[in-house]
Design goal:
With 439 residues, this protein is mainly alpha-helical. It contains 16 helices and eight strands. This is Trehalase family glycosidase. Belongs to the glycosyl hydrolase 63 family.
């Protein structure tokens, strides 16, 4: 246990230096219509980043937060999918790999005119839209925010619950590790081992121009990522279990989908529509999530390999994320697991992305051990939702202290607080603003 992790700090007021610094990060990374995650490493708009960024922006400018989400959904495909990257046309085409020429979205029927990727990211958007709306309902009503976003969110969820229900279980599958948001998590090692990587000489990575190789996925990882994305692209982005070499029912994505249906029910009520279909969808997702992915003996949710039907018994932070689902029947068990040796909730901060007790835990390697502010924010949100106010406030205060010490880093060592990855990272800044203002 380190002193820096457990030291209590006074609650931060909006005038605090941390608040001002977070505002500067979001101002620097704003690109007229959306916010980039980090200016050099991630120079375009990312899907779930924009959801978290809007949650913070709503405290600074509700209209700008609304615009962030409207910009993303302006690139929605005709089938309802929300792409994981919307490419900024003013950024050089080779600034990020895979870029627009790889994905070829503009040559794909049903894709928008703006260049995008063809895969998706975790569906945090309905929650973000509802929180953004609640920050300033008058401005949102004047701008027609909910009437525009609500049908787009319905189409997005419909895509995930139909086209991406690859096994008939009632759960969505991710078909690429990037879709999970936790790119190189050890949870994906087993299903990825069946994928033949593209040789490194056939692609040029741009991430290593701006980040240390020791903190990023390996070339072999990237070779498999490229193989999966290329095969999906060459199949016209069609979804079927047989067509995907990697297909996993992920607890984090399905939890966000269920929580999102609750948010859609609130939107429906606000718009004078029937919320019951969304409540029913949330109940179905919660039941399927618990019945299919929860392991009572382990006290955690495990991903399920859609090809084999077996659980992937890897203790990643994604297995705790169903705590964000209202009415989750195993919430108390998840809290106990978070407090145990694998995650050490009272000590580790941010919450580690992967089992602290595992022999291959690496506190500096992307999603193989470091803690991320966004998953810690989700856990904080879930703790509050399920009546764990003391644990939630303790986590909140320690997160603010960590960022004040390390800066707005992409991810941090969960035990020492050392920052890693990109600096001036947007969702870290945005969620700090939200944590500062939490009631």
């Amino acid at each position: 246990m380190t002193t820096a992790c457990v030291a209590r700090r006074p609650l931060l007021e909006p005038a605090d230096a941390l608040d001002r610094a977070a505002r500067r990060v979001l101002a620097t990374n704003w690109r007229r219509h959306a916010t980039v995650p980090a200016a050099r490493l991630y120079p375009h708009q990312w899907s779930w980043d924009s959801a978290f960024i809007a949650i913070g922006l709503r405290h600074l400018s509700p209209a700008r937060a609304q615009r962030e989400l409207e910009s993303l959904f302006g690139a929605q495909w005709r089938d309802g999918r929300v792409p994981h990257i919307v490419f900024e046309p003013h950024v050089p085409a080779d600034a990020y790999f895979p870029g627009p020429s790889f994905w070829r979205s503009t040559a794909t029927p049903g894709a928008p005119a703006v260049a995008t990727s063809g895969i998706v990211q975790p569906p945090a958007h309905a929650l973000a839209v509802w929180l953004t709306y609640r920050a300033d309902p008058a401005t949102a009503r004047a701008r027609g925010f909910l009437p525009r976003l609500y049908p787009r969110l319905i189409a997005w969820h419909r895509y995930l619950t139909t086209r991406r229900d690859l096994t008939g279980s009632g759960l969505m599958s991710v078909v690429h590790p990037w879709e999970s948001g936790m790119d190189n998590s050890p949870a994906w090692d087993a299903p990825l081992s069946r994928v033949t990587p593209v040789p490194p000489g056939e692609f040029t990575r741009r991430d290593l121009d701006h980040a240390a190789a020791a903190e990023r996925p390996t070339d072999a990882d990237y070779g498999r990522y490229v193989r999966l994305a290329r095969d999906y692209r060459d199949a016209g982005y069609a979804d079927s279990l047989r067509g995907h070499g990697f297909a996993v029912e992920d607890p984090l994505c399905n939890a966000l989908l269920a929580a999102g249906e609750h948010a859609l029910a609130s939107m429906a009520t606000e718009l004078g529509r029937d919320p019951q279909p969304h409540r029913a969808a949330a109940a179905r997702l919660t039941d399927a999530l618990t019945a299919t992915l929860y392991d009572p003996a382990a006290g955690i949710f495990f991903p399920r390999d859609a090809h084999t039907g077996g659980h992937i018994r890897s203790y990643s932070v994604g297995g705790l994320m169903p705590l964000i689902v209202p009415g989750l029947p195993v919430a108390a068990e998840l809290v106990e697991t978070a407090l145990g040796d694998r995650f050490r909730l009272r000590e580790a901060c941010p919450v580690p992305s992967y089992d602290l007790s595992a022999g291959d835990h690496d506190p500096s390697l992307y999603w193989r051990g470091p803690g991320w502010v966004n998953t810690s924010w989700l856990l904080w949100h879930g703790l509050r939702l399920h009546g764990e106010a003391s644990l939630a406030d303790d986590l909140r205060q320690r997160l603010l202290g960590r960022v004040r010490d390390a800066g707005f880093r992409e991810y941090l060592d969960p035990m020492t607080g050392t920052g890693h990855g990109a600096d001036e990272f947007s969702w870290t800044a945005a969620l700090v603003l939200d944590l500062i203002r939490a009631p």
